Amino acid sequence: MGRSPCCAKEGLNRGAWTAAEDKILTDYIKIHGEGKWRHLPKRAGLKRCGKSCRLRWLNYLRPDIKRGNISRDEEDLIIRLHNLLGNKWSLIAGRLPGRTDNEIKNYWNTNMGKKLQNGNKELGSSSSLAGQDSDPDPDPEPGLKPPQNTTTSGPCLIRTKATRCTKVILNQELQPLMAASHSSTHNNNDNHIKIEAPSPFMDSEGVTNNNVLDFMVDDFEIDDNVFSDLMNMKVPSCFENEVIAMEAAADNSSGDQQGCYHLCPHPISNNETCFINNFSDDSILHSSEVFQSMSALMENELDWL
DNA sequence: AATGAACTCAACCGCTCGGAA
DNA sequence: ATTCCGAGCGGTTGAGTTCAT
Question: Where is the HTH myb-type domain (predicted)?
Fold first, then answer.
């Protein structure tokens, strides 16, 4: 059985809203409040679909809508948030007061899509993961620039609704590092984060990788650099029941075993990952501490929500 | 000035999710 | 457990506007 349509399409106005319609809708919501969108048109005397009313109100008529050009700061934030969240426009909009998901989506598709395309041409000529030192662009897009200082932690600016991370995917290049630092001591700490591979993972060369690690992280050594990197990168307070990808990648151009790790909510759909920082081959990725620190960070987000 | 191309963004559409019954 | 419904999300469309020739 198919679901019933949100409204009868016959006899309804479509297309651009008139000033009169706007006034009717605004007046109605001022009196009756938001919600009950399906019944709103009839009660308000509008020949519009309820969904259309809702959209018009949320994207245009709300009093707290901020109109005008996206500022440089806002653009910076949008880029960073998009790196972390992907096309989660409503989440991104939630971090930009007065901006709507539709506006940000449009802005991204028109402005940022082009900018990033141009940026990727430059980035593509060198290692996008480990070659930032040779980046010829003195002022790349802020969201693409990895942190220069990995020891100074600023306030965590990027926050999402979710507060807990439960899943982590590692690609194969990271497994030896994990195995090397894995302790045989089992720890039942609740802060553990399960590492699992529920779905294919796109590795650093864009190859789908079904064979990723699947075990519990427990009891690793502490590495302050990793944590400070995460803090410095303004790691999202992560995404409940979503996936964080961590990836190591060799820099073949230099021959160094430099790698990087990055976090992203959807490693498959969002292959433009969030660059956090390099770590050299002699660094040990002390994952447990990273994850536990992330958990603590996420718990702290509760106060903010 | 005319015209076609490119761009912008409000609006629409189909789908999913969560809660209530 | 299942169905229904309201709400919300993200992708897409297309009318209006701006730009280039």
Answer: 9-61, 62-116
- Strand B contact at CB of residue A51, distance < 7 A: yes
A96 — phi, psi (to 5°)?
-120, 95
Same domain for A248 and A110: no
> What does the DSSP assignment read for A19-41?
HHHHHHHHHHHHHH-S--TTTHH
Which of A3, A63, A1 is CA-nearest to residue A29? A63
Which residues have Cβ atoms closer than 7 angstroms to strand C?
Answer: A 1, 3-4, 6, 15-16, 34-39, 50-51, 54, 87-91, 101-102, 105-106, 109
Return the CATH number at A82.
1.10.10.60
Domain count along chain A = 3
A187-235, pLDDT tens digit by residue?
333 222 333 322 333 333 333 333 222 222 222 222 333 333 333 333 3
Residue-wise pLDDT tens digits, A161-193: 222 233 333 334 334 433 433 332 223 332 223
CA at A6, C1' at C1: how many angstroms apart? 25
Domain that holds residue A198: 146-304
